[in-house]
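Hey team,

Filing this mostly as a record. A colleague (T.K.) asked me to run one chain through the structure pipeline before their review meeting, and I want the input and output archived in the tracker in case anyone asks later how it was produced. No errors, nothing strange. Just documentation.

Input sequence:
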Amino acid sequence: MSESFRDRLRALPDFPSDLPSFDPETAPADPAALFRQWLDEALAASVLQPHACSLATADSSGQPSSRMLILKDIDDDGWQFATARTSRKGRELSLNPQAALNFFWPEQGRQVRVAGTVVELSAEASAADWDARPGADGSTNAQWQLYALQPSEIEFWQARHDRRHIRHRFGPDGNLLS
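Output structure:
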């Protein structure tokens, strides 16, 4: 009997045998600080591009789309990323400024999901981000926009081999939900 695709998928390994521990009781109360800690741990574990994340947006009719991009910064404005205003994500954000970021570090069995409202940052901040890109040649790009996702929810997820995965959630203003 030939193996079905479903069986093949079910037989794939889940996570590495050695997963980091996570105790929400001892985690930083600030979700940005916890994210920075997890990012540092991902870097120490040689995770490739731990600042890469999926950005999910939706058009005016609610049709979702997602793509990978790079986190630029986290500050009081929010979780920053950039794109051209004329790109699909730029057009979707102009019509529907709700979005979600998802970071996934399979080597550690960790995910971080950040959802909320996206705002455009200043033209000066956008120009500075454009100038700081690798290969910048001093030219300007009026379509380049730096955005900040202002979280209404942040969820930290730690895999466990017993399938009792840990979810640690924050709501608006960093209030702990779990």
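Quick notes for T.K.: The mean pLDDT is 95. Residues 80 and 148 are 4 Å apart (CA to CA).
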